[in-house]
Amino acid sequence: MTYPTYHNLIGGEWLPAASGKTILNVNPADHDDIVGSFPASDAEDVNRAVAAAKKAFATWRLVPAPKRAEILLRAGILLQQRKEQFARDMTREMGKVLAETRGDVQEAIDEAFYVAGEGRRLFGQTTPSELQNKFAMSIRMPVGVVGLITPWNFPMAIPSWKLFPALVSGNTCVIKPATDTPISVYNLVQTLVDAGLPAGVVNIVSGSGSGAGSALVEHPDVRAISFTGSSEVGSHVAQRAAATFKPVSLEMGGKNAQIVLDDANLELALDGALWGSFGTTGQRCTATSRILLQKGIAAKFTKEFVARAKALKIGNGLDESVQVGPQVNKSQIETSAKYVDIASTDGGKILCGGHALTNGDHSKGTFFEPTVVGGVTHTMRIAREEVFGPVVSLLEFDTFEQAIEIANSIDYGLSTALYTKDVNRAFTAIRDLEAGITYINAPTIGAEVHLPFGGVKHTGNGHREGNGAIDFFTTWKAVYVDYSDKLQRAQIDNAE
């Protein structure tokens, strides 16, 4: 069997891992389809990449921000031209259907155009000084070399959320793509290179979290880390980065609730629930994992929702008629199966699905049925722990206030949705739901690049991507220009 071999990008050169070890990138819908071989990098490779980024920073930081932005603009145009091929590559390596991988590439295009505009908007502040003949201002400065650790579920969109604002801010980057989905990062970075990005400004080090990720987090010349992944790994990253005083941006797990009130447009709520629960095969941090149903509509909603879930077509995402692709690997299948067993043991009722698909067209992939669990209470593990698969729980409530309490009763706080025609309750939910994102009459998925993205509690540590990313990838410098031609002592000479 022949397949392409890819290398790390370090200082503008494509280099194999120093150890010579590799990892195969396998299509989760068809294990006979090998997307390519990628380096299994370790600390030696990371050291070389960081050194290249540090060298490139000396000149990249001096490129005017509008000129840096022009490269991103050109990259966005190239991504438009390459969208279909990149989407097909992503479906092969990650599994989600073509409609979604096209959307993933489109999000990178949107991010390129949005951040390109920020090249002329890296605003600081001017402010009056407390002393005469003294000028005061603040300016944004690049952080330096930044490490980016990205997940497999949005293998081009999320890297673009990190790379583009980091670059327009004047930083240089070392990115470690997810082990399951490296080719999408390679496609993205190659596009930046083709758009004119200088050698060493972005470096790719492929490999595992333990082999390459930890070395990147702990490297003394890496000034900041941006991480997207599980809360468990994110906690580990934050603790290791703290030893060298690195700021860390963490975007982690979710257990997102869609609340449906008795007065909701039920057809709209069903459409949103189906898309939010089973889009990307439930493998989104914003996926709808809990559906909270007011008792007046619970029976009707449940019957129709289960029927729709059963009717979804599951298969290879390259088939345009398929609605739900595979899970990304065997481990994710095992996790979904484990939580179905936990739900059953705790008293939940499996209304549909609940099993891996292993026969016929599904025999060569990692497929799991769309699964709906009824009879769930908010204290059950299935209602509190992230599954990251096509498994959704149905919970019933009496009052709007109970729904808010149930939605907030978990450790996560990423995305929430409320379906209602009552504007008062809509605004109350916006105020009271403990989440970084709230949708009214829309599903829990569908964030746009120009709004802040992130969450509270175990979902994140306060930083935001989207329009909050520039804040993370820049640091403030206060500047004072005294033109009095004499010594002036702030807080002393003006004390009276």
UniProtKB/TrEMBL annotation:
Coiled coil: none annotated. This is aldehyde dehydrogenase (NAD(+)). CDD domains: ALDH_AldH-CAJ73105. It comes from Telmatobacter sp. DSM 110680. The active site is at E251. Belongs to the aldehyde dehydrogenase family. Residues 14-479 form the Aldehyde dehydrogenase domain. Gene3D superfamilies: Aldehyde Dehydrogenase, Chain A, domain 1, Aldehyde Dehydrogenase, Chain A, domain 2. Its EC number is 1.2.1.3. The keyword Iron does not apply. Keywords: NAD, Oxidoreductase. The keyword Oxidoreductase applies.
